[in-house]
Design a protein that fits this description.
The protein is built from 1 helix and no strands. The chain is an all-alpha fold.
């Protein structure tokens, strides 16, 4: 009986771990993408100013 109660808890822990990993991955992706877009915007502004 004790093992039956631990399995759902382990499943919830695993789901929580996966959820947190997804949140961290999403945060890292958006941070890198934001930085990349800012660099592209600066390049575009510099090219527009030259014309």
């Amino acid at each position: 009986m004790i093992n039956k109660k631990k399995k759902p808890l382990a499943g919830k822990f695993y789901a929580f771990f996966l959820f947190m990993a997804m949140v961290i991955a999403f945060y890292l992706y958006t941070a890198q993408n934001t930085e990349r877009i800012e660099i592209l915007n600066k390049d575009y502004a510099a090219d527009s100013a030259r014309q």
